[in-house]
Design a protein that fits this description.
Chain lengths: 136, 236
């Protein structure tokens, strides 16, 4: 599953951030997982936790919390704002978007004017929203 | 919010010895043909080679190489299929023959996604068919893959030559190493770049390449492949 690779990116980046912030122990990592990514949040949290168990000492034992990032789009042509549900994406198309969220531009259309020229306002990708820890 | 993806790119490329970014700053100069056939020639020399088509909006490497039914697999990321001896990754696997209308920033996002999740394994070469021009994606690519060596493609046309000169100066300021310059669609006249140390050679216009498109074995028999082979010989 390609989620493993994204989980590795999260752990690598969290390690770099913890070191930049000189944290001696990380208590919690809050992840924002965009709706467009169609990732099972519980499974993804398990993947991150699994990799944290063999990560740098300061990250071991950190909790992982996932916040769902609802997807929102804005049409460049008619300025209509819409959701993924409004765009009525099929299962096959959703799988392509799952791997590369920008594929939304291939399979989705503005529900008002039919344009493929829209911006993904939010809800793509996996982000580290917050890292909390101690400096002792 | 921190985007974690760029932090893992070097890990993904850890098993790749050299990254060759085939780039050109004008459309229709044969950048994709050179990238695809370069990968094919390296594979036929027994090198482990991967090809990444980052020209998302005009993806054509899969058409040049006749790749139709290949599909990636998933394990600890996306494992690209091995086709014609080339480990191949392209947005065509996800777009299923449809147009890919991406703005510059979206091309960068999609490229970063592929770079973060693709497991390349052990490779002697990763050939990257670069996004055309010097927009967001091209600039991001050389920032993300600092050891990428540029293989710059031009044609004898004045517009292509002048654009190449300006772009080379830009990439020099960005400290991107230049592997060399290749002239495509040559006419037999000396290239304006032929005096430069990094000029690797000229490839004459070859109508045979058009008829061989989609058939790797026939491509290897073209004059285009023979002349590009001389460039490959210089890569070691």
């Amino acid at each position: 599953m390609h989620e493993w690779a994204l989980a590795e990116a999260v752990v690598t980046s969290a390690t770099e951030t913890a070191r930049q912030q000189k944290l001696s122990a990380v208590d919690e990592i809050v992840l924002n997982v965009g709706e467009l990514q169609s990732i099972d949040n519980e499974m993804f949290a398990e993947l991150v936790l699994g990799q944290l168990s063999s990560a740098a000492a300061e990250l071991r034992g950190a909790k992982v919390r996932i916040v769902k990032g609802e997807a929102a789009f804005e049409c460049q042509a008619c300025k209509k704002e819409f959701s993924e549900k409004d765009a009525k994406v099929g299962e096959e198309e959703r799988e392509a978007i799952h791997f590369v969220p920008e594929m939304a531009h291939v399979y989705m259309r503005c529900p008002a004017c039919g344009s493929p020229d829209f911006s993904i306002v939010r809800g793509r990708g996996v982000f580290i929203q917050e890292i909390t820890g101690r400096h002792d | 919010m921190i985007d974690p993806r760029s932090s893992v790119i070097e890990k993904r490329l850890a098993g790749v010895k050299r990254v060759i970014a085939v780039t050109g700053w004008k459309g229709g100069i044969g950048k994709s043909s050179i990238a695809s056939v370069l990968a094919l020639l390296l594979a036929r020399k027994g090198r482990r080679v991967a090809l990444l088509d980052l020209d998302f909006t005009g993806a054509s490497d899969h058409i040049i190489l006749g790749i139709r039914d290949a599909h990636y697999t998933e394990e600890t990321g996306i494992n690209p299929p091995l086709v014609c001896g080339i480990t191949f990754m392209s947005m065509s696997f996800f777009s299923h023959g449809r147009a890919v209308p991406l703005r510059g920033g979206d091309v960068s996002q999609a490229a970063l996604e592929l770079l973060a999740v693709t497991q390349w394994g052990e490779q002697d070469f990763l050939v990257v068919d670069m996004p055309p021009g010097i927009g967001d994606a091209a600039l991001d690519m050389v920032r993300w893959i600092k050891r990428a060596e540029l293989l710059a493609v031009t044609t004898p046309a004045v517009l292509s030559v002048e654009t190449l000169k300006r772009s080379l100066a830009l990439f020099e300021r960005l400290n991107v190493p230049l592997l060399g310059i290749v002239e495509n669609l040559g006419t037999g006249a000396p290239s304006p770049f032929s005096h430069r140390a990094k000029f690797l050679g000229s490839i004459q216009r070859d109508p045979g390449l058009e008829t061989a498109t989609g058939q790797p074995e026939q491509i290897l028999c073209t004059r285009f492949a023979e002349e590009l082979g001389k460039v490959v010989a210089m890569l070691g």
